[in-house]
Amino acid sequence: MRIGIVGAGVAGLSTAKVLRQAGHEVVVWDRAPDVGGVWSRTRRYPGLTTQSPKAQYSLSDYPMPRGYPQWPTGEQVQAYLAGYAGHFGLEPFLRLSTDVTAATPAPGGGWDVTTGDGTEHLDKLVVANGVFCEPAVPAYPGLDEFTAAGGRLVAGTDLHDVEAARDRHVLVVGYGKSACDVTVPLSEVAASTDVIARHLLWKVPRRIGGFLNFKLLLLTRMGEALFRYRVLRGVERFLHGPGNGVRGRMINSIGGVSVRQYKLKALDLVPPGQMEDIVRGAIGLATEGFFEGVASGRIAVRKERTITRLLAGPDGPAAELDDGTRLPADLVVCATGFTQGVPFLDADVTGRLLDARGNFMLYRQIRPVDVPDVYFNGYNSSFFSPLNAEMAAVWIAADLAGAVDLPEPAAMRRQVEEQLTFMDDATNTHHCRGGKIIPFSLHNVDEVLADLGVNISAAVRASHWLNPVDPAAYRRITPQVIARFAPAASPTLVR
Fold it and tell me: Which pLDDT score is estimated for 246?
């Protein structure tokens, strides 16, 4: 088939690679001038690094370079993905600097996709534009007045150079990983740096106690099992039954370590609740240098505060907080999350794609229940996003070949609704409209592979209970599945 893929990030590239290996023709559009999605040079902010260590953020059959640090920079990840595209021969199929403006179901099946180059017909469509596709920037009153006075309001992903903050009064809005990441380099050159944090969030140290890599605790199957999943099996039944007290102490002890390690009591930055509540907000690593900057006075955190308006003060642009405080604000950087949009799909399609609350109705986070000939990938954002995207791509290839035993539509819809209801409760609705599966990354991998009747060996899965999950362990899944329905696939492609 001829398959169109919207997005050239991790999900789009891995989908293109797997579908090419399965014998399909692909075309990949991305509005950025380079591959990488969130790692594109057009979206990289100062201080950007991976959240997961390099081994866990790798694709199964293409490891990151040995010389990369444990947490690669945004520039390094983009170079890695460009290398992946080159290694697997994807470059001829990329149409970069190309914006998809419309994708419409064709009367006889398939999709008509419109870009600046015209409209073309595809047999199938894969939406891989990501759950972090558009930054969400608040509409503050007084913006015109603020801008006229010389102030600048930007999304974090639109700030690419620390020089924009030199000798300026900077406000960073947000307290997630991206907010803290961008704050550190900006604070090193700014006249002042204030973080406007509506809610304090728990932060996981990269090295717990200063020496133990967090992946040894949380990026294991045991670490995932500490959070209650919809269906409990094996050890999980014990952990959330007779062993629940032990389980709670295991996860919350990390919070105690974090409080002591970063001296959060002295900084008055202890989040409410317990570390176990982290999944109900945002699971984020502590940014190196952030709490040290707060301790030194270089960074000020305005906790439980919001900006109510921007204005032109007597001494220049300023921002007023909800407690009446006015702060000088030459530069306001909004690290306030993203919207998950598909603006190229028309109202009829989105009406069938979304539920009444705007959640994506995707079976296995991949296949819409009521919209034919289209798949989604990357709407399973996780600690192991490349691995989840790659296994989803294999699922798509198998489904295209009719090799997935799907439930009836009513049963599919019921299962999707049950999953969304569960994630609503587990994450307090913080699941990106159904597009984020943290902390249940491996449950998703297991469910996807169970549909295909494959998995890595039980012994290796058992080793992943105590050792960090290694995506390389899954490198044989793609050729194994493809060999079932595409025995003539080129051995030079399937490697």
Answer: 92
At residue 254, the pLDDT reads: 87
Q: How far apart are CA 491 and CA 445, in angstroms?
A: 25
pLDDT digits (tens, 9 = 90+) for 469-481: 999 999 999 999 9
Q: What is the pLDDT of residue 207?
A: 87
Check whether 488 has a pLDDT greater than 70: no
Listed in sequence order, the DSSP H helices in 137-243 are: 143-148, 177-187, 215-218, 221-225, 235-239
362 DSSP β-pair partners: 368
**169-173/192-197 β-pairing:** parallel
Residues in the chain: 495
Domains in the chain with CATH codes: 2-133+340-485 (3.50.50.60), 136-337 (3.50.50.60)
Is the Cα torsion angle 362, 363, 366, 370 positive or negative in sign?
A: negative
The angle subtended at Cα 220 by Cα 216 and Cα 222, nearest 5°, is 110
Rg (CA), the chain: 23
pLDDT given at position 495: 47
DSSP state of 49: B
**Tens digit of pLDDT for each residue in 74-85?**
999 999 999 999
Residue whose token pair is 């996981």: 204
Average pLDDT, the chain: 93
- In sequence order, what are the residues at sequence separation of 6 or more whose Cβ sits closer than 8 angstroms to the Cβ of residue 77? 36, 39, 50, 57
Summarised one tens digit per residue, pLDDT across range 421-458 is: 999 998 888 888 899 998 899 999 999 999 999 999 99
- Measured distance CA(106)–CA(488) in Å, rounded: 30
pTM tops 0.70, yes or no: yes
Task: Kindly give, in sequence order, each residue whose CB lies less than 8 Å from that of residue 414, ignoring residues fewer than 6 positions away.
Answer: none
CB 190 within 8 A of CB 167: yes
Cis status of the peptide bond prior to 439, with omega within 30 of 0: yes
**220, 384 Cβ separation under 8 angstroms:** no
**Pick from 306, 308, 269, 309: nearest CA to 291:** 269
